[in-house]
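Quick one:
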Amino acid sequence: MKQLISLLPLLAAVCIARSEAPPRQQAHVLDATISHPVHLSYLLFLPATYAAKPDTHWPLILYLHGGSLRGGDVEQLRTLGLPHKLESEPDFPFVVVSPQCPAGEIWTDTEAIDALLDHVIRDYRIDQQRIYVTGHSMGGRGALYFAYRLPSRFAAVLALSPYSPVTAWGSKLAQIPLWLFQGTADNVRADHRDEGASWRHPIGGRPPSVQ
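Output:
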């Protein structure tokens, strides 16, 4: 009985430690000076088996949120899109970096994103041949823009309902495997959908039929 009583504090400590285990997706801030000061909040997800596989270099997804999540509270990113999915899928087999766009801005700061990727690659085991970029709405446009500006950085780009892509990006995007989704019920003007089609076709892109 005395042995059982002596074990109770230890068992309680173990249970508390488990209940307070840090989430797989943690908040970080990148403070850096490149051609301008950068202060970029982001969520970083590591697969559940990351620590158990020290010889593995993991593929990385850069996820860009839509316009409604801009601001100064990075925890908002957990409520939508890929970061939301990751809250319940600890075995997702990618490292995922989800930065937050500052209020009043859109995804155009290529130097900041490049610095963020360099930072994560330096600190974690990343397969640099398998870095992907994706996003939806404003983030879909940002995914296309960063792939246009950094075509050698990304292995592929997936843009979901991208807001107002630019025809002039087509020549560089032709160098990268690209999948673009645009639903008929997406709240994007028809001319924006047509503009995306105008650069897909010359580079060999054909809108698939997805049921």
